[in-house]
Structure formats: C-alpha cells, structure tokens
Task: structure prediction
Amino acid sequence: MADEDPLKAAMVDAIAARTLAESADPGTRIGVAELARRAASRETFAETRVVPIGALALYRRLRAITAHVSSPTAFAAASAEGQRRIVDGIEIRVAVDDDAVWLILTLPEGIAPEALELVGEDGTLVRLPLTSPVDGIVQFGLSRTAPQEADAARLIESPTTHIFLI
Amino acid sequence: MTPRYWSDHAHSEFAALFEDRLYSDRFKDALADALIRGWPPNRDKPVWALAVLVAALGKTGGAERAGGLLLLALSPDEVFARLAAHPASDPATVTIEPLGRVVRLGAFEAIITLGRTRIALLRKLAEFLLAADDYRHTADVTAILDALAAPGGVDETAFREGVRALARRLYDYRKIHFAEGHAASGFDFIKRTLGGSPRRETSDDEIFALWRDPQNRYFVMYRTALLTALDFLAMRRALAERGAFETAGSVEDPLLARTLGGREEDDGGLDFAALEPDDTPLAALRETDLKTYAQAELDVLELVAATLPEGERRPRALLRLLAFHPIQSGLSNSLRTGRSKVPLEERVTCVEAADYHKIDQRLAAMGERTAGWLAVLLSLSSANDDARTAAVRDKGRAILTRSRSQSFAHPPEVLRARFEAIRAALLALAGMIATARTQIAAHGRVHPLCEAFEADKAAFAAEFTRRYRPARGGADGG
Result:
C-alpha cells in the first residue's frame, strides 16, 4: 500500500489520541488509583467488597505497603479447629467451634492496629474494626450463622485468606 | 451508528483511570496524548520518563517495602517532596536535582524535568500499564517497575530492557484495541473536506461544516472534530513551511522537523531537558492551594486553551465550542448514565446554551478576576510606588480583605510566595483571555453576536436532534 501523504501517520496518531479520551463509562471497572486508595485507607466498611481477580496480587502488594502486618497464609498445621500465624512477633490465632469463629491477636507493646482486613483467594474483602488491646491481647468472635458476619467468619476460617492488620 | 476508533474495552479502561478523583479534560487529553504520540519527536519518551522517575524514587529509600509500586503508594505531591528532599548525583546511574517548583532527574543519559502535574501524568501512565487488558499483564509490569526501583540501583541493561518492554505494551495495546483503518479514512475525510493545500485559508464555518457533514462518520463530538481539524491545519502548514525551507535550500529547521515528529533519535542521546516543565497556565492554577478560580471557570478556560495555539484566531469556532460543547457533553453523559436534569427532548434544542454575549461577559469576568489576582500579587510585593501602581496595589489589598477563602489566611510572606508561583500562569491567562475577547469583538462587528448565536443554535439543535433524540416508534434511521 503506497502511502504518499506524509501527514497521514501523524494525523492517525492525532485521531487516536483525541478519541481515546472522549467521554466513556468505566462501568464496573476499578482502576489502579482507586485500588491504591482503598488499599491505603483505614476506613472500615460493613459490607463485603470484591477486588477483581486479576488485580488481586496488585491489591495485596499495595495493602502490604501500609499494613502493620501482612500474613498471606496460615502455618501448614492449620486444622479444622483452628490455625496459627506468627508475623513480626505478632501472633494471630483462630479457633473454630460450632457456632462461632474466634480470633485472638497477641501484639507486642506499642502496636495497636485499628482494623483487620481479610482478603480471600476469590478477591472477597472484609475490613473489621479492632478494639484496643488489653495486656497485648485483642480477642473477638464472629457468628458463623448470622448473615452479616458469615462472610468474615468464612474468610477467617480459611488458612489461605490473606490477613492484614492495619 | 458511527463506527468507533477504539474498542469499548479500551474506552472504559481509560475512563476507569480517572475514577479516584476529579480530573480535567486537559489532563485526560494529555495522558491519551502521552500514551499514543509520546512527546515528540519520540513516541517512547513518556515511558523513558516513567522509568527515570521510578529509578529515582528507588534511590530515595522507601522502595525496600513498596518496590516499584512506591509511585502508586504516594500522592504526586508526596513523590515530588520526596525527590526534592533526596538530591542524588551519581552520574553513572541516577541523578536527582531539585530546582524549586520542578526537579530534574537523570538516568543513563536520559534527563527529564518534572513538576507535580507531570508526575501525576506519569503515575497515570504506570496505572494504565498495570491495569491494561483487564490486569492481564500486571505481574510483568510490576516486575519491571520493581527492577527499576531496586534500592541497590538498576543497571543500564535492565533499565533499557524495562523501557523497551513497557513501550512494547503500549504498542500491543493499540494494535489490539484501535481501528487504524477507520482512522485512516477519518484522515481522508478531513483532507477531502478541508483540502490538502494550505494556500487557501480554512474558515471556521468550514470546520463546522466538517462536523455537520452527512458523510461525517468519524467525529461525534464537535470538540473532537474542531481539535482534530486544528491538528490537521497546523500539521498541513508545518509541512508546507518545511517544504518551502527545503526547496529554498535552507538547513532543515529542527523545530519544524519536530512538529511532524519526523526525526528519529536513538535511545542513547535522549535529552529531556529541553522539554518544558509542566508550566501551562492551567496546570499551575490547579496545582496551587490558592482558591483563585472556580471549577466551572477553569473548565471554560481549559476549553479555550485546548484550541491554542492553532485556534487563536478562530473566534466563531471558539464561541461554538464554549456555548455548545457543554450541551453535547451533557447529552452524551445523560445518555450514558440515564440521568438528566433536563429531558433529552428539551436538551437537544439547546435551551440551556449560554448565548455569545453571555460567553463574552463570562470571559470578561474572568479577565477582570485575573487582573484582580495580579493586583493582589502587586500588593504583596515590596513597596516602590508611583501613583499608578499605588491604585492597583490598593485594589489588590481590597480584594484580599474582602476574600473569605481559607486559602488566603496566611502570613503575607507565605501568601506572596504562593502568588509568585502562579504569576506566570496569571499573566499567560490574562493574555489568553484578552486575545479571545479581541477576536470575539472583531467578529461581532461583522456578524452581530445575537444573530450569530441564533443561527448556530438552530444548526446545533438540528444536529443534536438528528443524533441524540430517540426515534419515536419507528426504525432507527441511522
């Protein structure tokens, strides 16, 4: 194809640049900036969010930048009754009984995270506010049956859930 | 139905970049431009600049934890502050040289001067690369950014390979999502309509007719049609001038060559220092903490600025843009979102359009406001009065006293420094507004503004009705 007009290539570029920015709807897409904003925030939210599966690894990295603790998985010895993680001198223990999931955090002095963030393998994301530690311990339980807590309970139970203290 | 240049996927992915806060159209245009055209004469310059920026950030500490994502973990202001606080002078690898409002960075012979706006732009470029194609290449891009930011420093081979791989991503993206053939026929349409020869002047009406042409399957928005036509006219003239130079046997002017991006440079000798820092007037005004202009005013000024320099003497095209682009933008938004303050049937008739007198009055008000801010600046400067400057100074003081904005509640020396930082922007803006108003006044003497507005309103209303009003009970005619 003989392309004799020297303006053509430059103008095709100009059209490409001018039209890419024409108004459009992002739909349900989440951009990286929004992902980074959420990952850096400490605001807690009641409902469950979902991070797009492709962006999950990026989200986890961004979250880890500002988190006190980032624990990707529990020890291999995790069992149906519970699991244990130790990161940077902080112990995260999970105990499961029929109705509830218990979470016990043992924190070294001087560390008082405001919230716990759970990121499931499927991108499900839950953030829970934490109370102040008493003698270095924060402990709370979540009902496995109450609908508003079931998501969080399910995530805590799973050894592959990425736990962040933020 | 007008065929699209870009896939819907690309459009929504690009739009998702700007969901975290409000961005100006100019900023979005600048990013699209950086992604597609780069910074002439080199298409890959923005990618080079991104690599230099990430490598420099890696030298400032903090990358131990965040790696190459440090750029995303910090706001552009924080990135700037961090660079400014960590000068580095290792000419073999990375240099960081703070220069007040900007910082000059260098890595492996590439040098770039950055201010906050350009840092924000490069951050968006990184975001685009990370998210493109549904995050399918995130791992690869992250690995490249990490290598660039390696706290121990990146070696030249890794640096160059990183740049090449990122540039390749942009190239592949365009190949997948952009209809080159449609754009090529878009070019043919413009050339056919406006003509290939720069000898005859192209009138504003001809540009308007290009958009209204029944054959126009290429440009939906009047704004895009106008700006692309201006691109075409500028390039057509530059090409002709270059041709004239060459025929006259003169040495090729590098500036003209640059306009057309005709000169290729090899990787080794890139020098970004010549690239102007982000000192467009509006960038500076958006960066300042001073509340000098309302958002709506900046939007209008950005529309004016978008037509420059080529559109400087096109008052009618400018008036059409300022009066009717907001209407078309509202139409396409309400069609997209399904929400609309005014019913579509009514909106297409342009009842909401500001008439040309009102537009001129708004420009006058902004000119007046700009003069006011310049008076404030004078009132804050050291006193050396003659009678005339004393009056201006008093005016400036009065404006400051009246102002209730918190952004002015600072000691005089702080306030003065902040106003000094936007001095050039204010002067440029004053010039831009004055030129636009002079042009409009001259046009108004030949074509009374009331009549001009009514004629254009009827024409836009007819176009919008044809394009946007839902067909009633019949088949879609388009």
